[in-house]
Amino acid sequence: MSEPWPGRAAAPSLDDIARLAEEAFAALPGVFRAMAGDIVFRVDDFADDEVLAALGMQDPFELTGLYQGVDLSRQSVMDLSTEPARVFLYRRPLLDEWAERGDVTLGELVTHVLVHEIGHHLGLSDAQIHRIEAG
User: Fold this and answer.
1) Residue 118: which of 26, 9, 37 has the closest Cα?
2) pTM for the predicted model, two decimal places
3) pLDDT (tens digit, 9 = 90+) per residue, 1-54?
4) Which one of 11, 12, 69, 93 is separated from 107 by 20 to 30 angstroms, measured CA to CA?
5) CA distances from 53 to 12, 49, 84, 116 (A)
6) In what order do the strands lie in the sheet with 65-68?
């Protein structure tokens, strides 16, 4: 993934993060992309206050990504969902973590968060996702 920021004065924009997410998704194995289905990706600067309150979080910098929808393990053919499954990526917390860590590229961090949230879409728990990532 190309990252043009070393010589730029401006921080990566919402569109830059979206492009990294699209590149990350396109690079995933086809079977993983097929399992994810018609998931929608959205990039915002931060989670809104309602989301943070629902998660019991006060610091918006603590949340880099979020899956919103009914995960595949709980879906039924009888469900008439009008809302697509969504993965939210939060630009400012991602940039903050990237700057603090210094040991990964922004593209790697976006990929990690994206895969983690898609894992929730597939019905995996945090523990299962961490085991997969460790393997």
Assistant:
1) 37
2) 0.81
3) 455 556 656 889 999 999 999 999 999 888 888 888 888 899 999 999 999 999
4) 69
5) 27, 6, 22, 21
6) 40-44, 86-90, 65-68
